[in-house]
Amino acid sequence: MRLFSLLAAATTALFASPSFAGSPIAGVEIDTIRPDRYLAKSHECVTVDPTVRFQPVRHIGIRPISSGIGVECTFYRDPHCHSDNDPDHPDSYTLHEGSYSFKRRFLVGGFKCVEPDSGHEFL
Fold this sequence. Notes:
four-stranded antiparallel sheet, 8 strands, disordered N terminus, signal, AA1-like domain-containing protein
């Protein structure tokens, strides 16, 4: 019985992602009039500092906390991470981990990050 418990715990640890425990999955840097850094948990809306919310974003950097996982973040104008879903006037933009520079006006009020589906299936 004890061996089964140990095996079950080891299997869960093998397939568990950092977000499983509510840990941050990404570090996000948003550079406007100053660089601001945030830690993002999976599916949690992170509100951008109100003093830079209406400043154009120059650069965004997204880095996974753990190596070997992918991360994508959706950035919203709304600080509560809501979108109107209007295809003619998009108010959200999704980026994968990496570094991005912006030449056109791009405003961020909040963002959410997730790990894309890794394809692991439990048998």
